[in-house]
Amino acid sequence: MRELTVDARPPNNSETQEISITQADRDSFVMRIIGEEDLEGFTFEGLKRRMGTHSETLSRMLSRLEESGVLARTEHGYIVTERGKFIAGARQTASSKSGVLLLRTLMPAFQNNRMINGLMGRWFGPLRWLGYSRDETGTTMKWITENGSVQVDAHFSDGELVIEGRILAGSDLSEAIAASHQLVGYISRIYSHTPQRPAYSSTAGAVSLDN
After folding, report:
1. CA nearest neighbour of 134 among 108, 116, 107, 149
2. Sign of the CA dihedral 37, 42, 43, 44?
3. Position 125 confidence tier, pLDDT thresholds 50, 70, 90
4. Average of pLDDT values for 130-136?
5. Does the N-terminal or the C-terminal CB of the chain have fewer CB atoms within 10 Å?
6. Residue 153: in which H helix or E strand, if any?
7. For 126-173, where are the alpha helices, taking DSSP H only?
8. The pLDDT of residue 144
9. Residue 159: phi, psi to the nearest 5?
10. Per-position b or e across 68-96, b if 16+ CB within 10 A of its CB
């Protein structure tokens, strides 16, 4: 019988360091994107499109970050832990997050939660769900095209909805503009099926949806 031999020599330090640096750089790239987008939750497929990364590579990166307590996996995707938010904030770059204004409309603040719950995880035309972020001004929901070239962000704040498009790779906003109208149409349907609050004298609660 042929004897199985195992090479018990310790790995070369330079090789170990090279592998470690490569992994650290890749993981850092994930955290940089999370920091840029201020993500609190996201999907695997959405992040893959945003980063332009191979599925197996991203899976290994997310597994390492999950093991280190930076991310937590749920049935709806990944969420960023408090530790992860701290690290992502420290790694956030100065790149501008603003894009091209596609639509701005009034939206009653008391409708925000219903709208957000109705849109979470939805696809619209070429747009695929990426994730969401929250800050003191409101909640931003994010979509990205299948090829990762265009991103559309819908920001729900106190009394206003703002939709912006961003070109991430050589492309134009024509698909994003069309998709934003589909998005607004869906928002309009959610709004039309929502029980309204008792009438009041102010007209500030009126909604204007351009289609």
Report:
1. 116
2. positive
3. confident
4. 93
5. N
6. strand 150-157
7. none
8. 93
9. 90, 10
10. eebbeeeeebbbbbeebbebbeebbeeee
Six-digit token string for 92: 């956030």
What pTM, to 2 d.p., does this model score?
0.75
Percent of the chain with pLDDT over 70: 76
Q: Where are the alpha helices (DSSP H) in the chain?
A: 13-37, 44-51, 55-67, 82-91, 112-119, 174-192
- Going across the sheet that includes 100-106, the strands are 71-74, 77-80, 39-42, 127-135, 138-145, 150-157, 160-167, 100-106
Tokens for 132?
């969401």
Higher-scoring residue by pLDDT: 163, 180: 163
CA dihedral 134, 135, 140, 146 (to 10 degrees): -70
CATH class of the 14-91 domain in this structure: mainly alpha
pLDDT at 87: 86
Q: Kindly state the tokens that stand for 5.
A: 């031999």
71 neighbors 62 (Cβ within 8 angstroms):
yes
Residue 79 falls in which region: left (phi positive, over 0), alpha (psi -120 to 50) or beta: beta
